[in-house]
């Protein structure tokens, strides 16, 4: 059955923004025919493959230029890795995700007020030696910070070095940080600054390990500096209706009917040679699409490698970062604190890296009279069942909070995210050229910083490279 797609329509931009040779793309209405017996080729301005943050950012940039496009998504929803499921009235983000308000690209694209961002405590509670110890941002929680100076998470000197590290990154621009040539693994940077093993093992490994999904802290120092700068300038938050509201907000601004769900791309093909213009996009169901201006690949790196097989030389990729996120439900009187704080495992034992109570941050994450628990592990744990992992987490947390509370929690769902982030160990290039072929461009967090912001930046950069090549900007 034909599926009609209304492409973006509007009055033409000035001639210098839309050359005559592409004027026919304006005000076009197309249809995509799903047929196993007849090949139907549909043409539009640009084909974007993947409706995660990078693809949505690319679509947003095209819409701003009034360039027609189709955004193809293989799954049943937008967002890529940034999605929220509703299960029994609970909002379950797909993996541990925090939105930092200081992300520069995000500030340009998103309406923070509409997201109704709910703030975390600016610091953390670290489980070490059988009890919890506070690490606090002195500029936001002065007295908590003063009280924590003598706790065993690090020395007074360590806490002074944190202040110096903050000052060091704040005097640099984002561009200086991401383009730095003197990168090292984060752990080497921190040791070079002079941090003790105590604060490295008890705070930095669980905190930044939870951000990078890399407890060894082998991730590039460029990413550490960028994140540290954003943390210093902004706040850790969650949208009140789940992390998936971020892609939802981006998609809501796009022209109607420009997104095709459940449309998996099988291959990219250059029928007349690799220098003949943009590749043809062949869907798994037999549909054929062509972007007259180009194709933007905005899918995860493993899928990019498959689709570019035969188009470019194989790229040796490092193993991706993986994580497991386990959710539990509880009664409100069965959780130990009401503070919107992140808990870190500083004991260097057990499988838990970090955990928190989402309903302490945003009450909307659970139905009335219920609380939600989120626990994060680093790695894939492929040899362990969901039930086994949930049982071990309950045993481990019983040692943190007491059996009387934790044993009453009920396992709700487990998410195994095999590609949580690209591996960004040195050496890295965080400003990659998005053009990889005639009319073919790449976007995704693997092209720049492995962050929400990096995904958004990469989508914009891919489209701007396309527009420059076509003389549209």
UniProtKB/TrEMBL annotation:
Superkingdom, taxonomy of origin: Eukaryota
Region Disordered, annotated ranges: 1-20
InterPro entries: Amino_oxidase, FAD/NAD-bd_sf
Ranges where the Amine oxidase domain occurs: 53-467
GO molecular function terms listed in the Swiss-Prot or TrEMBL record: oxidoreductase activity
SUPFAM superfamilies: FAD/NAD(P)-binding domain
One Pfam family this sequence matches: Amino_oxidase
PANTHER family in alphabetical order: AMINE OXIDASE (PTHR42841)
Protein name as catalogued: Amine oxidase domain-containing protein
């Amino acid at each position: 059955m034909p599926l009609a797609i209304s492409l973006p329509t509007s009055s033409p931009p000035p001639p210098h923004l839309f050359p005559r040779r592409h004027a026919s793309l304006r005000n076009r209405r197309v249809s995509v025919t799903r047929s196993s017996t007849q090949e139907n080729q549909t043409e539009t301005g640009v084909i974007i493959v993947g409706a995660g943050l990078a693809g949505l950012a690319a679509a947003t940039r095209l819409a701003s230029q009034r360039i027609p496009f189709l955004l193809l998504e293989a799954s049943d929803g937008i967002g890529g890795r940034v999605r929220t499921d509703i299960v029994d009235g609970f909002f379950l983000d797909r993996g541990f995700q925090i939105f930092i308000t200081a992300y520069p690209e995000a500030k340009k694209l998103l309406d923070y007020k509409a997201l109704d961002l709910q703030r975390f405590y600016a610091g953390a509670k670290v489980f070490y030696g059988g009890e919890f110890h506070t690490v606090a941002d002195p500029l936001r929680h002065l007295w908590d910070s003063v009280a924590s100076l003598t706790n065993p998470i690090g020395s007074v000197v360590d806490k002074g070095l944190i202040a110096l590290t903050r000052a060091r990154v704040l005097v640099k621009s984002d561009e200086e940080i991401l383009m730095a040539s003197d990168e090292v693994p984060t752990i080497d940077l921190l040791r070079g600054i002079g941090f003790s093993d105590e604060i490295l093992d008890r705070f930095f490994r669980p905190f930044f390990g939870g951000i990078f999904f890399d407890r060894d802290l082998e991730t590039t120092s460029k990413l550490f500096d960028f994140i540290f700068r954003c943390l210093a300038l902004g706040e850790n938050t969650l949208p009140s209706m789940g992390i998936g509201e971020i892609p939802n907000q981006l998609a809501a601004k796009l022209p109607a009917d420009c997104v095709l769900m459940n449309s998996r791309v099988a291959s990219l093909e250059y029928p007349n040679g690799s220098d003949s213009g943009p590749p043809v996009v062949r869907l798994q169901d037999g549909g054929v699409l062509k972007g007259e201006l180009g194709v933007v690949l905005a899918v995860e790196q493993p899928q990019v490698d498959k689709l570019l097989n035969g188009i470019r030389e194989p790229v040796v990729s490092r193993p991706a970062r993986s994580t497991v996120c386990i959710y539990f439900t509880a009664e409100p009187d069965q959780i130990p604190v009401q503070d919107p704080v992140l808990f870190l495992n500083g004991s260097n034992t057990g499988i838990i890296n970090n955990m928190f109570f989402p309903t302490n941050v945003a009450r909307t994450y659970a139905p009335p009279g219920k609380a939600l628990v989120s626990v994060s592990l680093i790695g894939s744990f492929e040899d362990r069942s969901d039930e086994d992992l949930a049982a071990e987490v309950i045993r481990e947390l019983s040692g943190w909070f007491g059996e009387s509370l934790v044993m009453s929690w009920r396992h709700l769902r487990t998410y195994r995210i095999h590609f949580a982030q690209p591996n960004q160990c040195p050496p890295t290039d965080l400003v990659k050229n998005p053009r990889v072929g005639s009319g073919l461009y790449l976007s995704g967090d693997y092209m720049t910083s492995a962050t929400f912001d990096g995904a958004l930046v990469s989508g914009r950069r891919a489209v701007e490279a396309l527009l420059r090549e076509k003389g549209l900007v």
